[in-house]
Amino acid sequence: MWYHVIACDYDGTLATDGRIAPETLAALGRVRHAGRRVVLITGRRFDDLLVVCPELDFFDWVVAENGAVLYEPRAKRVDDLAAPPPAAFLAALERAGVPFSAGRVIVATEVPHETAVLRAIHDLGLELQIIFNRESVMVLPAAVSKQSGLEEALRRLGVPAHNAIGVGDAENDHAFLRLAGFAVAVGNAIPSLIAEADLVTRAANGAGVREFVDSWLLAGQEPFRPRSIAVGVEDDGTPVTLPVRGPNLLVTGASGSGKSTLAGVFVERLVHDKYVVCLLDPEGDYRPLAEQEGIVVLASEPGTEANRAEEIGRLLRHRSTSVAIDLSSLDRSERVRAAARFLHAVQRLRAETGAPHWVLIDEAHHLFPRGGSVAEAMFDFEWRGVCLITSDPDQVAPSVLAVAERVLATSIAAVTERLPLLPRDAVPGGELDADEALDITRSAGAPLRVRRFRVAPRETTHRRHVRKYATGRLEPEHSFHFRGPDGRLNLVAHNLETFTMLAEGVDDATWLHHFRSGDVSRWLREAIKDVGLADEVQALERSGDAASSRRAVLEAIGRRYTPVARPDAGDDRR
Hints:
By secondary structure, this protein is an alpha/beta fold. The protein is built from 21 helices and 27 strands. The strands form 5 sheets. The chain has an 11-stranded mixed beta sheet. Helix 3 packs across helix 4 (114-124), helix 10 (305-317) runs parallel beside helix 11 (332-353) and helix 19 (519-526) runs antiparallel to helix 20. The longest helix is centred in the middle third of the chain and has 22 residues, at 332-353.
């Protein structure tokens, strides 16, 4: 089962004239009986929802007020995910004669009063946004949407967005349908939502939801949005891609031929697209992945397998963090036992949440030798999303090796001699260059398909100093000095973390002196060597007051360098 959550809009999707039909609720009950969770997501005010939806406690989670309020029915717990509307704003709307209703966070009115609402926001200098939902006009804090609310609900459920289905009908559903792994528009949806959806039901409203549930989701033909990861290109520029839900893989080649580089490219691209990966690394070859945002590298010491297994489970659940497990400090028998425990833990987690989406096992001949091992006995190789990496494919247990339907080889001998898949004359071209590999597809009853390609460059090497710049210590000549317009200060930032703290504390005159003179963007470009960040900051230098420019710069840094995130926001960052 790939999809573990279905998130449905309320009005116009589940509900008709504000009510959910019993047949629709019964269909959602079948979804839950199949082991999936159901999330209600609506723009309605929370207090209003309590009145119009008596079935509220049926749902696993409720996202109300267009992403601003989260309700857990079982615990009867309500969490506001943003600040309430400012009293000055509500007073301004009253003076302007705008009819509105205020929720815990949201302020709702209707067309054509959006012009007066915008004028009040502008005059008061507030960070509020307007969101339309057919004739309704919703006012919310910036960055609050159904997407942000669903992200928080999924985080608490421990389910990645790729393993969620979104169902909606109107303008304010665009954001959360884009987040979901599969997007459904009911038959009465607006044209722009229909154009973006992966599937459109024939029926409208709740009948459309029932159609999707019974004809697709629970009918043995679970839908999927085809997605692929590019790992290289052929000489003619044709991309070589690996389907996210494709066949299991074998990556093989002689030692030093680039198989770890190829596997690392695949991991980096998966993590970049927010898929969750678990990598078993017996030799510690993948430690540089620690510098890739979204991946945590853990070292397993002798006797720590039980605690590590629990920690891995927490990390894989928490914000869908990918994990690489370094087993290099263990001897061979300890590695096999530790791998068995870890594999058992991750496959149990996958059954509950859909993640990890891929499990990569390096030095597979050590963990799954010919003759069997406890690691082999503990793992279900009927899984999709398994990648075996080895320089000795002939030493891997045949039953394990058989799960790989696609082979990527970084040396010709690996697939013509060590694993005799094909004769040498079946390989196009001569010997492989250092950055080349073979892509071999094999399936029962079909001839092998062989092509050679150039492996895409790794990203990790380009980002290997992220931690240094974020929390390390730069050389004195590369540090940033807040001196102020009169040169009376000398506050030194040795890294981005101290820069952030000092930038938050200096007076406005000092900040604007350095910001508008280009000192900040120049330091980011020359000392931090982040051209993209420097360009973003440079584009801001001629606009904004001290508060807004300072906030924009610190947010830009925080997006790129997770260790710089403020402590009170750390749990909400990837």
